[in-house]
């Protein structure tokens, strides 16, 4: 979401003459776009601001101006604190306000002093944004924002606000535009994307499953994905879309957070471990090659050894192709921050280590199971090493093949069959199953 938001901010300031610069030292405007999900982000922000202050002073000595801004969820949650600790920051603004960037910049350049803008404007922000100017082969398209779930550990409902879904018309227009500009894969974004309920022009309300069916008809759109989902919002239409829409990739990030019901209840997750397992069964029946990814929090307040053991069993039962796992960290203002029975750091460390070991083994095993198979790979860029080209498998792993003799431009943007020859934890290597043009070169 923040990658998408950052590129949309660049679109908003482009008409004012701003272009992206290689380094912060060259920039007239630096916006730090922040995430508030984990505690470390705030401290990282202040150390980055310290570095920018040095650059800002160096520019001032040459008679030049560098506007420094903090955007995103840390700005939303801790705006006044940022202004207190770093008074040289010119603008602090939340995620709902970046369509107002030109106005905020104008106020700063007129010498209006530090700006703090953490409004939730009535006008939906997406309607006030210009078109996306640039796209890669893989593009993000934000269809939903905010969340009404109020998980006890999470800041999103406070920083991004209530659930809001864009209209079907606006989404389809943006998708067509992205494809016209060269995108071949679209990832639909939202904090709680499968809670999507967008209004169509005839006044009917569409869920995510119906939207996916409509978008899949766009010519040259080869792949669709969506992230991030809540298990309680996986309805039958969305599960059926996994069966019926070939361009919906067989990879789903579906956070569960814990495999123990007492912890899920304390987290206010609104689902039990068995509900998730039931869902996995339905999804795999609909799309047998579906690979799953998830999020886990270990050491949530009150998590016992028995609860944690259940999480490990749960992971072994499901089998994940990849997952993100974190130690619980207290986020100020969330209900969990005030819960008793906070878990000592060393216990959290040990649990995280044990969980990550199993998840890493599962990821390696999943990747190795692909060796010898032929997979469609969507090629998007140069590889890490010279003479390589990079693409993504249906399961999102980076996949590298030797650069074909016809060169990069002959292959970027194409989805081609690749025989997988080797696998590592995070990437695959392979060779084209049929050389470009169908002739062995
Ligand atoms: S569903 Fe996701 S975004 Fe919403 S409160 Fe829970 S963790 Fe946060």
Gist?
With 441 residues, the protein is α/β, with parallel strands linked by helices. The chain is built from 12 helices and 19 strands.
Descriptive overview:
- With 441 residues, this protein is an alpha/beta fold.
- It has four domains: 2-117, Methylthiotransferase, N-terminal domain (Rossmann fold), CATH 3.40.50.12160; 135-249, Transcription Regulator spoIIAA, CATH 3.30.750.210; 251-257 and 274-369, 2-Layer Sandwich (Transcription Regulator spoIIAA); 374-438, OB fold (Dihydrolipoamide Acetyltransferase, E2P) (Beta Barrel).
- It has twelve helices and 19 strands.
- The strands form six sheets. A five-stranded mixed beta barrel has the order 15-16-17-19-18. It has a four-stranded parallel beta sheet with strand order 1-2-3-4, sandwiched between helices.
- The site of iron/sulfur cluster has 10 residues, from helix 5.
> DSSP helix count?
12
Computed over alpha carbons, the radius of gyration is: 23 Å
Which descriptor suits the 3D outline?
A: globular
The number of strands is: 19
Kindly report the CATH topology of the largest domain: Rossmann fold
Query: At the first level of CATH, what is the class of the largest domain?
Result: Alpha Beta
Enumerate the strands of the largest sheet in spatial order, edge to edge or round the barrel.
15-16-17-19-18
Strand content: 15-25%
Residues in helix, %? 25-40%
Structure classification: alpha/beta
CATH homologous superfamily classification of the largest domain: Methylthiotransferase, N-terminal domain
The assigned CATH architecture of the largest domain is 3-Layer(aba) Sandwich
**Overall mean pLDDT:** 93
Largest sheet: 5 strands, mixed, barrel
Which molecules other than protein and nucleic acid are bound? iron/sulfur cluster
Low-confidence stretches: none
* First-last Cα distance: 42 Å
Task: Give the domain tally.
Answer: 4
């Amino acid at each position: 979401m923040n990658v998408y938001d950052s590129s949309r901010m660049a679109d908003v300031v482009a008409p004012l003459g701003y272009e992206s610069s290689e380094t912060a030292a060259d920039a007239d405007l630096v916006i730090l776009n922040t995430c508030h999900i984990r505690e470390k982000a705030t401290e990282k922000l202040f150390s980055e601001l310290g570095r920018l202050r040095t650059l800002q002073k160096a520019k001032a000595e040459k008679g030049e101006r560098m506007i420094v801004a903090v955007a995103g969820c840390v700005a939303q949650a801790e705006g006044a604190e940022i202004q207190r600790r770093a008074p040289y920051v010119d603008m602090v603004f939340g995620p709902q306000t970046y369509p107002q960037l030109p106005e905020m910049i104008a106020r700063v350049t007129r010498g209006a002093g530090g700006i703090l803008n953490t409004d939730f404007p009535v006008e939906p922000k997406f309607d006030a944004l210009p078109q996306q100017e640039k796209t890669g082969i893989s593009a993000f398209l934000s269809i939903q924002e905010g969340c009404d779930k109020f998980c006890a550990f999470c800041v999103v409902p406070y920083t991004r606000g209530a659930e809001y879904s864009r209209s079907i018309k606006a989404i389809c227009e943006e998708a067509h535009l992205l494809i016209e500009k060269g995108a071949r894969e679209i990832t639909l974004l939202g904090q709680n994307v499968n809670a999507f309920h967008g209004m169509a022009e005839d006044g009917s309300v569409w869920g995510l499953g119906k939207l996916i069916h409509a978008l899949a008809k766009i010519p040259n759109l080869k792949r669709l994905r969506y992230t991030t989902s809540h298990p309680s919002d996986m309805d039958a239409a969305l599960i059926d879309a996994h069966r019926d829409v070939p361009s919906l990739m067989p990879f789903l990030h579906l956070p569960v957070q814990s495999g123990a019901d007492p912890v899920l209840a304390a987290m206010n997750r609104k689902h039990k471990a068995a509900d998730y397992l039931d869902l996995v069964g339905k999804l795999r029946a609909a799309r047998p090659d579906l690979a799953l990814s998830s999020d886990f929090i270990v050491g949530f307040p009150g998590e016992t050894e028995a609860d944690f053991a259940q999480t490990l069993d749960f992971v072994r039962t499901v089998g994940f192709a990849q997952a993100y796992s974190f130690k619980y960290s207290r986020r100020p203002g969330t209900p969990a921050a005030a819960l008793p029975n906070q878990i000592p750091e060393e216990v959290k460390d040990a649990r995280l280590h044990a969980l990550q070991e199993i998840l890493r083994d599962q990821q390696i095993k999943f990747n190795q199971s692909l060796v010898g198979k032929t997979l469609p790979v969507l090629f998007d860029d140069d590889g890490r090493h010279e003479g390589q080209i990079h693409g993504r498998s249906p399961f999102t792993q980076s996949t590298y093949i030797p650069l074909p003799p016809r060169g990069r431009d002959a292959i970027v943007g194409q989805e081609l069959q690749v025989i997988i020859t080797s696998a590592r934890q995070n990437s695959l290597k392979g060779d084209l199953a049929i050389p470009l043009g169908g002739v062995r070169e």
